[in-house]
Amino acid sequence: MLARVCQVARERGLVPSVMTFEPHPREYFATLNQRPELAPTRVSGLRDKLAALARYGVSQVVVERFNARLAEMSANAFIENLLVQGLQTKWLLVGEDFRFGHKRSGDIDLLREAGMRHGFEVQTLADVTDQQGHRISSSEVRTALAVGDLDRARHLLGHPFHISGHVIHGQKLGRTLGYPTMNLRVAERCAARSGIYVVQVYGLADQPLPAVASLGVRPTVEDRGRVLLESHLLNDTLNAYGKLVRVEFLHKLRDEEKFPDLPSLTAAIAEDARNARAYFAVHGL
């Protein structure tokens, strides 16, 4: 879809643009109806989403706040206010099942009728499938990440799953245990399954650095339920506070566990580090 948008933009001298919503409309309605379990998990945070769009050649991203105003906006107002007046749209590409406006009242036919009046062309893109004929979708990616199937997630995404962010200060417990970590905040409802992973870290050196990481709520040492990504560099000790890094997930070692005491936790971390080193000994960076 992005390749097609960028191609047409080059041919017609237009600006390749993407409109996205924050939060996800399903997340908004789940919160509104007090049904948080219905909110979709997040495959990527806004920073990673914008970076990915830039890599694929998109020049302009409109992040539209999905709130009551937008939820109640009629389909015709959506076209008039956002597409015509806001973006001055000349060519529009949407999925074949695209719906918009209050109670999803707008469809492709309405878009095409409006395009004839306002001078923009509408095209649709059919479902994209893999070599086995399976539909590639965000739901499939979420399912793969929820069960820790990183190979499947990589296949669907076209690249390894990753989380980026600025390194923050933590409780320094890892340093006390002999395994200092870099801590990243994780977006709420992260799609990835909590657990211990082999990862590589970008942003601290010319090459990615091998590491082992814990994604989860740290049940052995706190009970606040806040999800954190803690990465321990296997071969380096660096002052990374405040730096923007990208942690790329390569292999899942085990699920997150709650240990009875800190010595048990330390022994488990040591075993995880050994297993991560064994992974890199075989696969490299």
From TrEMBL:
> What is an example of a Pfam family matching this protein?
FAD_syn
Q: Which GO terms describe its molecular function?
A: ATP binding; FMN adenylyltransferase activity; riboflavin kinase activity
Annotated GO biological processes are: FAD biosynthetic process; FMN biosynthetic process; riboflavin biosynthetic process
Q: Known InterPro entries for this protein?
A: FAD_synthase (IPR015864), Riboflavin_kinase (IPR023468), Riboflavin_kinase_bac (IPR002606), Riboflavin_kinase_bac/euk (IPR015865), Riboflavin_kinase_dom_sf (IPR023465), Rossmann-like_a/b/a_fold (IPR014729)
Q: Which Gene3D superfamilies match?
A: HUPs, Riboflavin kinase-like
The pathway entry for this protein reads as: Cofactor biosynthesis; FAD biosynthesis; FAD from FMN: step 1/1; Cofactor biosynthesis; FMN biosynthesis; FMN from riboflavin (ATP route): step 1/1
Listed A to Z, the keywords are: ATP-binding, FAD, Flavoprotein, FMN, Kinase, Multifunctional enzyme, Nucleotide-binding, Nucleotidyltransferase, Transferase
Which SUPFAM superfamilies does the annotation name?
Answer: Nucleotidylyl transferase (SSF52374), Riboflavin kinase-like (SSF82114)
> Which transformation does this protein catalyse, written as a reaction?
riboflavin + ATP = FMN + ADP + H(+); FMN + ATP + H(+) = FAD + diphosphate
Residue spans making up a coiled coil are none
Q: Which residues cross the membrane?
A: none
Q: Does the keyword Transferase apply?
A: yes
The EC number of this protein is 2.7.1.26, 2.7.7.2
Instruction: Enumerate the spans annotated as Riboflavin kinase domain.
Output: 156-281
Q: What does this protein do?
A: Catalyzes the phosphorylation of riboflavin to FMN followed by the adenylation of FMN to FAD.
Membership in a protein family? Belongs to the ribF family.
Identification of the protein by name: Riboflavin biosynthesis protein
**Which species expresses this protein natively?**
Achromobacter kerstersii
Task: From the UniProt record, report the name of the gene that encodes this protein.
Answer: ribF
